[in-house]
Amino acid sequence: MIVDRRKLREDLFGLVGFYQTSNPEYPLLAECLLESRSGLYFNDAHSLLESIENIDQSIKNFAHYKYPDYTADNDANGIYKKGSKVAFNGVNYEYVNDSESKGGNPPTDEDYWSEIDELSDYLIKSVYSGIDKMIDDWMNYKKVRSVVKSIYDRILLFSGEPDYDDIVRGENEFVGLKIRQKKGESSLVTIINKIGHHFEGNFNGLNVLLYHSSQQEPLTTFVINHNKSKSSVWSNINEDNILRYESDLHDVGGDFYLGYRQSQLLSLGGRAIKMRIIWNEMPDSKYHKWNEYYKQWSNFIFVTGFSVDESVIDDGFDPAEVSESYTENYGLNLNITTKCDIGNAIAMEEDLFESCLKQSVAMKLLSSMAYNTRGSNNLANQLKNEAKKELFHSKGVYGTVYDNYQSSVKSLSFDLSGLGESCFPCDDGSEDIIAGLGTLS
Questions:
Q1: What kind and span of H or E run contains 10?
Q2: What pLDDT, on the 0 to 100 scale, is given for residue 403?
């Protein structure tokens, strides 16, 4: 449903902000907390939140969310922009430079990074928690989960026989699998769970690069090890493995190219073994296993083999130079999942969620005040009872933060009907639910 929660948290972060503290005894809040694209501020949700002292005195260790580790790699993992947050040598940092960086500027460089203090860290992670709660409550209340159609999960591109006598003899080409998402639906994503590799030789450290046709640099690099000569080996892929029709990393649509340099494979002592496949047509009965897999994914993605001279990669990837092959897989296979993902659609319509997010994070902060365990702290103790009153509905009394949050969730109007028939089919009564997503309750 929401494939990449971390990305959605980052997308919605900064929609509502905090006021900077004026108390000289407290460190200034991290810059990312001050952004408010909506013009709304969490401090305004209740008088208890107006004082940074109230929040700070109820603080507790809140390490539920871990920032990604800093990487200096010159790929998608190493691209940082203002507001990016990382962990480095046990310390958390925020990227504060106006110019993006592709690694090479470690978090200890104060021109690019600022250390995140304990209070800012707590507030950042409270916002993450508030985003999660808001999205989950909205999906449950509007019954969005019951509408989504399952596509397929963890299937292979093919399960066929290798031709052990047919070794791929190329030496200086970038080769692999070209993948195109057929349906232009922003709600569909394809996930690479594993990369299968059928090679001659035993070796470690082959770089498998993922390109998009709109980018000259790779989106990411997977490093695989092959420890069984002339056998199929599978490498699990857990990060940067989501292929999207729409993404802020590349243009809309287009093709993905997953491949490796033959020169590197040869230097490691390996060669690719072909499979008996034909990409451009439905296999006949003698390829029964492949036929079953093909029927599941072929309506959603298009796959062929491809090759291009390595010099093209050196100069910047150019899809116009690529040659397709309908009989080659260059030793590669994939275990894939295609899911419905409304995360991007939510981020694009973020203004609909601003009021609800304000109340959701306020609930999180007030809950910490109401149930803090700092018994020796006088201010924290004074806040408990008043904070608790805001977490429930009192008979005959309306206008608590809880009431405001519930009202915001119920009134969220979000039209899912345009996200694509693959995810939201209307042949089982679900059209009534979809229509109801845009109504007040």
A1: helix 5-12
A2: 92
